Amino acid sequence: MWRHFCTVEKTVLSNKEGQSCNWCDAEEKTEACYQGLYWAYPLRKYMRWPEYMEYHYWESKNNS
Ligand SMILES: [Zn+2]
Q1: Residue 15 lies in domain
Q2: Between 23 and which of 8, 44, 49, 54 could a Cys-Cys bridge form, CB atoms 3.0 to 4.6 Å apart?
């Protein structure tokens, strides 16, 4: 399984290995580049890439 933040579903989704997302055109190989932890600010917390994407998505919604 691989995970990504889906901008269509607006949530973190799990997808089967070797399959692209049903909702958007996210692919496992593209998401696989984003390994490790990312520093979320102003939350001041390390997050995995899908959660980091989700956090910034809602953060930018709140600011607009
Ligand atoms: Zn998706």
Answers
A1: 2-63
A2: 8
